[in-house]
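Troubleshooting entry. The earlier prediction with manganese (II) ion gave an output that would not parse, so I re-checked the input for stray whitespace and re-submitted. Clean input:
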Amino acid sequence: MILVLEKGITQVKKSQLKSILAEKGYMVHEPGGSGQNILGVIGKKNLTKEFLMSIEGVEDVVPISTAYKLVSRQMKQEDTIIRIGNVEIGGDKITIVAGPCAVESREQAMIIAKEVKKYGATLFRGGAFKPRSSPYSFQGLEEEGLKILAEVREVTGLRVVTEITSPMHADLMMKYVDVIQIGARNMQNFELLKCAGRMGKPVVLKRGLASTIEEWLMSAEYIAAEGNRNIILCERGIRTFEPYTRNTLDLSAIPVLKQLTHLPVLIDPSHATGIREKVSPMARAAIAAGADGLMIEVHHKPEEALSDGPQSLYPKQFGRLIRDIYVIAPVVGKQLIHDYTGYSSENRDSLSTLFSGRALSEWETQGIESGISRKEKRVVYLGEQGTFSHKAAIQYFSSDVENYPVPSFRDIFEHVKNGSADFGIVPIENSLAGSIHENYDLLLEYELFITGELSIRVIHNLIAHKDSKLEDIKQVFAPTPALQQCKRFLDANPDIKMMPVNATASAVKSVVESGNLESAAIGSVEAAQLFGMAVLEEAIEDNPRNFTRFVVIERQMANKEESGKINSSPKSSIVFSTSNKPGSLFEVMKVFSENQINLVKLESRPIHGKPWQYMFYADLESDLTNSSAENVIKAIEQNTEFFRILGSYSCGKNGID
Ligand code: PEP
Ligand code: MN
């Protein structure tokens, strides 16, 4: 049952209510944290609505109609985000778990871990206890394998996932690994589920070979009922009559689960297909269908692998897949998770000082137990909550980085420069409206560095009051680029007057504040939800291929050695000016050409105070901070009057090619 509590209920009254329920033998949960107005109540005895309604402070009682309660969407509306160190699974993030089927040796695990990390995995998988169909197959290195996993974590910083096959191994798992996996064959091993629940470590719960979604969620409920809410569901294919693939990947489970549960969902296309060539297409489809991440088997010598070689990707294949995922994720409103700095979460703190004193939900509390850090870093963005800049900040950084808005682009640079913020997030170009020139000029003026980038898909909606109708709208508030991007819609509605403002969310806010039913704003679904407004018309942008590329700015260059971040797809941004002579720009281009450096963007901006002279901004697919680039830098310097590296960072493609 969900209890809706009366508005403004005091903590004292709430505690009394909770103890009455506890005395009666009911389990009480606060799915939204103690700041929220709901309580979940579960008990073996039948609860009557009359009894619950009779308790002081209870305003309404809503029964949970499904057999599983704690893991149901009815119990908790928001997506659960599982935190493992500073890796997050769920929400807007895409998380990649990768590694061999089994840990075979220290050397094998280390080689593969470094490869998968290089290409973007943030969690390393590898079996130490292998549940094999045949007793004669390799059974895993057991404790030795777990020790190797712990060493992999030590060396690479990747958190490690391994399968538990018996409650007997619980202590070993507690000692060596970060996440435990319950394999398909054990999905209904109830003693093991209860044990995983008691262990409290995050659990990847695989779907049984022939289990329904409901049975799967009931198994998750077993873990949750023991008090462990850190459950990640993993679809890995089910048995069907089709023999061509090892199993049949049930991709429709993703949207079904998204409706039924708040838990994050991973897809394992390796065990689902059993065939290397089929892994990447299914992985791409899984992300397009809304999965929160992938679990993929990778091996540097799959032909020699002791288990599941035929379905293991070569590291390079894995790298190509991850580049595709990087491009697909923003299309569905998500972001491939970044290891955004070398910032590690060593700094564990007592619960009370976390989240600026805000009370924690049970889900958050458990995340902390699995190791998160204090909010000690800050990112600054433009505008208001609910803007695309805000979304970019949330998607790029993990939630232990605090974010806050400022009114102008210059303020972002100023706040990073003077140390009020550690990071700034600035839009640099839009795929339809082009470059945001002011930020190019600010990049030159402020001696800050670009340390990362991401693309956000921009879907514009016409937002107005819940009682407004499209035909009533007389004026629409939006920033000029948004108005430009919705030109076709506005041309088709000539009676609507355009009212340019600073940021999309301020537009929505001003419509809210005016109370005017004839006013509308252009903005994101998130902004509409944030301000309790209605979307009158969805996706009114002219072209759905509408992406904005943001860069992350910091006071220092990204320190790749320190962060252990290996640049698999390096990119550098530079700014330079050339002398006013024939062929001077060509000479710089020649340096790139001779060194096989791909130029992905070239932009010119007028130099202030020097009419008809220009600064060139270039993006190159190369890491210019690498020692091997010294000659290139020298050659550029020789052919330019001014030259500065704005930053060298890791990228995928920028989401639009
Ligand atoms: C595995 O992940 O190596 C494994 C054995 O998976 P499953 O339980 O899905 O077969
Ligand atoms: Mn396997």
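This one parsed fine. The pocket of manganese (II) ion (ligand 2) is lined by residues 101, 271, 297, 307-308 (CB under 6 Å).
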